[in-house]
Amino acid sequence: METTNKTTEHGVHNSKIHDNAAKIVFGDSTLCAQFLKGYTDIPFFTNIKPEDIEDVSSHFIPLFQESRDSDIVKKIQIDNTELYLIALIEHQSEADADMSFRLLRYMVYVWTDYAATQEKLKPGITKSKDFLYPPILPIIYYEGTGQWTSALHFKDRVFMSDIFEEFIPDYKYLVIPLNKYSQEDLIEKGDELSAIFILNKLKSSSDFKHLKEIPEDYWNHLTQNTPPHILKLMSSVFSAFLHTINVPAEEINDLTDHITRRQFNMMFDSFEAYDVQETRRVSREEGRIEGERAGRIEGERAGRIEGEQLYLIKQIIKRIIKNSPVSQIATDLMEPLDTIQPVYDLAMKQAPDFDAEKILNQLTSLNTSTVTK
Q: Higher confidence at residue 274 or residue 127?
């Protein structure tokens, strides 16, 4: 698969993260079973179990000339009935108009391989009237924000299909758009897959507040019933999201540990939704503004530095008021501890009546004294 990295003022965003999160859903038999049972509306899958599903992607993907590592093939065996699932993951906003033909080629590959396998077991079997090809369920798992607008029927991609309709091979593929399900819809389903979908719907730091709106009973149910390996998968999906909003690796580990330890509520309590890169950008901008004001006295460059220091002091004071420890403040502001500690010590001496400018003056005097010595 081709990986697309986009660098913006808010950091680096990797489109492969979306594919990885979706692959988790189909890569795990438990989640795949929940997906087929609860999201396809096909009664045949009502009683499907994880052990009924076998991943055969490694066999078929090399045959698919246009395949990506996010394309998935499953063999499903239920009550002596064998069928196949082809799942393609799409997260681009613009739907692939030729998807019906691409899936058709994949289906032909699977049927061809099936026929060859049966011929090896019993030569000539495919020429028998009793020989039947297995059904194939083609699914598009769509994470895009827009509507899926591509034709679902292959015949709609063929010129003059209205005249030659009966001579054109036709089928319909199933689209499962993640944006179809509201948070309330997913909460109602109450399974592990719904939790992964909820986490996978997160697109920015501002979305995190919606997790705090989820009833406590929902998380308690997951806490009691979710297998450990599924908790690790949920942790991976959440980790991917935190990377996209530039949360430091150490903090990501702390947050995702709450999931694997079944401490969902503690995770929400300890996470304040923010984009670190954006915080730093705002800090620089406000520091520049305050610095320009101070620059009337000490010069623009010196004033800009002083303004940034003053803004940093104010941010430290805000976190002291929230009872954040000094190590956490350093992590939040992405500053060395030896930069934060002197300001923290001076501020604690003022508590609860903080004066940022007074701290700045004391810090300047302290630094000057140190240089003089």
A: 127
pLDDT band at 21 (very low <50, low <70, confident <90, very high): low
What's the mean pLDDT when you consider all of the chain? 80
How are the residues of the chain apportioned to helix, strand and coil, as percentages rounded to the nearest 5?
60, 10, 30
Cα–Cα distance, 28 to 353 (Å, whole number) = 55
**Rounded CA gap, 269 and 322, in Å?**
13
- Which residues, in sequence order, are bridge partners of residue 72? 87
Whether pLDDT at 158 is above 50: yes
Pick from 205, 195, 176, 272: which is nearest to 237 by CA? 195
pLDDT tens string 110-126: 999 999 999 999 999 99
Neighbouring CB atoms inside 10 A of 191's CB total 21
CA distance 66 to 1: 10
Instruction: Report d(CA 279, CA 302) in Å as an integer.
Output: 22
**Dihedral sign, Cα of residue 338, residue 342, residue 347, residue 348:** positive
Pairing type for strands 174-177 and 81-90 reads: unpaired
CA 296 to chain centre: 47
pLDDT tens per residue, range 92-113? 666 788 899 989 999 999 999 9
**CA gap 267, 256 in Å, rounded:** 8
Rounded to an integer, what distance in angstroms lies between the CA atom of residue 289 and that of residue 307?
A: 7
d(CA 173, CA 138): 5
Higher pLDDT, 95 or 3: 95
Residues 102 and 96: their CA atoms lie apart, in Å, by 10
C-alpha dist (Å) from residue 212 to 28, 157, 207, 237, 239 = 27, 45, 10, 17, 17
What Cα–Cα distance (Å) separates residue 322 from each residue in 80, 316, 319, 329?
61, 10, 5, 10
Helix (H) or strand (E) run with residue 81 in it: strand 81-90
